[in-house]
Write a structure and sequence with these properties.
Elements (H helix, E strand, L loop, with lengths): L1 H24 L2 H12 L4 E5 L2 H15 L4 E3 L2 H4 L12 E5 L9 H9 L4 E5 L5 H5 L2 E4 L15 H20 L4 H7 L3 H6 L3 H4 L8 E3 L4 H11 L4 E4 L5 E5 L1 H6 L9 H4 L1 E2 L3 E2 L5 H11 L3 E5 L7 E6 H6 L4
Parallel strand pairs: 1-2, 1-3, 3-4, 4-5, 6-7, 10-11
Antiparallel strand pairs: 7-8, 8-9, 11-12
Helix pairs in contact: 1-7, 3-7
C-alpha cells in the first residue's frame, strides 16, 4: 500500500515540476496569443486528437464559461464537414504534443486557406503544426510521469494549465465578474452560490406586511396565512418600520391581543439588499440565528421589496 502512495507522490511531483518548467518558459508568444483572441470578432475553435482532444474540450468549455465564445471541433469530423463550423473572424487553437498529428492536417490547411489565425500548442518548435501557426506556444521538455516517457501525463497537464492561463488572462482583461459568470452557470452548486437575493425573494402579495397600527389579532392572521413565521411592519407612507418574529410574540404574550403591531415589533431589524448574493444572506441568517430577511434597497425608497426565507436558499442548494 505504501508503494502505491509513493508512486502517486512521484507522479504528482513530476507533473508539478513540469508545470514549474512551463511557468518559467512563458514568453511574449503567450501575450501574442491572448491579443490575437481579443482582436478576433468570432469564436475560438479548439481542436486536438486523442488525449489532446480531451484537453481541448475542457479548454473550450473553460473559455466559453468565462466570457470567450469557444467550441471544440473534432479534427476527424472536421475532415467530414465540420470545417464549416469555422469562419473568418474565428481563431483556431490547435493542440498536439508532437505537432505532427496527421488528423489535424485538413483543419490546419483550412485555416491557412481562409486566413483564419492559428495558435498552435506543441512540444517541438520545428514541428509542422508550429511552423504553420501564426502564434506558436511551445511546451517545454519535461518527462512524462509514467516513467517510460510514453503515456501523456506531464504533457497533457501542461497543456491544460496553458489553456487555463489563456482563459483567465482573457477573463481578467475583460473584467469578467461573478455576475457575468453566473449567466453561464445558472444550474448546480455554482449557480446556487451566485444566485442573488432578488432571484429568490418573495414579493408583492406573498410578502407578509401589516401597518403599524394593525391590531395583533389581524397581525397573527397575517403571520399564519403567509406561512413565513414573521411579519413586516410598515408605516402609513409605506416605509419599512420593523419586524415581528416568534420571539417578539413570546416576549409580549401577556396582553398580546390588546397591543398593536408597532408595540410588539423589533425596530431596525437585520435586512439585506436585492442585489446581494444569496450566499451572503445565508451567512447572515446563520450568524444571527434567524430564518428570514426583509429585502430593502435604500436607493429605491424605504419600502420593503421582498422577503427571503432560509428555505428558499436551501431549495436551490445553499446551506
Amino acid at each position: 500500500m505504501t508503494s502505491f502512495v509513493n508512486i502517486a507522490r512521484r507522479v504528482i511531483r513530476t507533473e508539478a515540476d513540469a508545470l514549474a518548467t512551463l511557468e518559467a518558459s512563458l514568453d511574449d508568444s503567450f501575450a501574442g496569443a491572448v491579443d490575437l483572441i481579443l482582436q478576433s470578432s468570432g469564436r475560438v475553435i479548439v481542436s486536438g486528437m486523442g488525449k489532446s482532444g480531451h484537453i481541448a474540450r475542457k479548454i473550450a468549455a473553460t473559455l466559453a464559461s468565462t466570457g470567450t465564445p469557444a467550441h471544440f471541433v473534432h479534427p476527424a469530423e472536421a475532415s467530414h464537414g465540420d470545417l464549416g463550423m469555422m469562419a473568418q473572424g474565428d481563431v483556431a487553437l490547435v493542440l498536439s504534443n508532437s505537432g505532427e498529428t496527421p488528423e489535424l492536417s485538413d483543419l490546419v490547411a483550412y485555416t491557412r486557406r481562409f486566413r483564419i489565425p492559428l495558435i498552435g500548442v506543441a512540444s517541438r518548435r520545428d514541428s509542422t503544426l508550429l511552423k504553420q501557426s501564426d502564434i506558436a506556444l511551445v511546451l517545454p521538455k519535461a518527462p512524462e510521469a509514467c516513467g517510460v516517457d510514453i503515456v501523456p501525463t506531464s504533457s497533457t497537464t501542461m497543456t491544460l494549465a496553458l489553456g487555463d492561463a489563456l482563459a483567465i488572462a482573457l477573463m481578467e482583461h475583460r473584467q469578467f465578474t461573478p455576475e457575468h459568470f453566473r449567466e453561464f452557470h445558472p444550474g448546480g452548486k455554482l449557480g446556487a452560490r451566485l444566485s442573488k437575493v432578488e432571484d429568490l425573494m418573495h414579493s408583492g402579495a406573498a410578502m407578509p406586511i401589516v401597518l403599524r397600527d394593525a391590531p395583533m389579532a389581524d397581525t397573527l392572521l397575517e403571520i399564519s396565512s403567509k406561512g413565513f413565521g414573521v411579519v413586516g411592519v410598515q408605516d402609513a407612507n409605506g416605509g419599512f418600520a420593523g419586524i415581528i418574529t416568534d420571539g417578539d410574540l413570546r416576549r409580549h404574550m401577556q396582553g398580546l391581543l390588546d397591543l398593536t403591531a408597532a408595540e410588539v415589533m423589533t425596530q431596525t431589524p437585520q435586512t439585506i439588499t436585492p442585489g446581494a448574493l444569496a450566499e451572503e444572506a445565508v451567512e447572515i441568517m446563520n450568524r444571527r440565528k434567524i430564518t428570514c430577511l426583509f429585502v430593502l434597497d435604500p436607493d429605491a425608497g424605504p419600502s420593503a421589496l421582498g422577503l427571503l426565507h432560509i428555505h428558499d436558499c436551501l431549495r436551490v442548494g445553499l446551506a
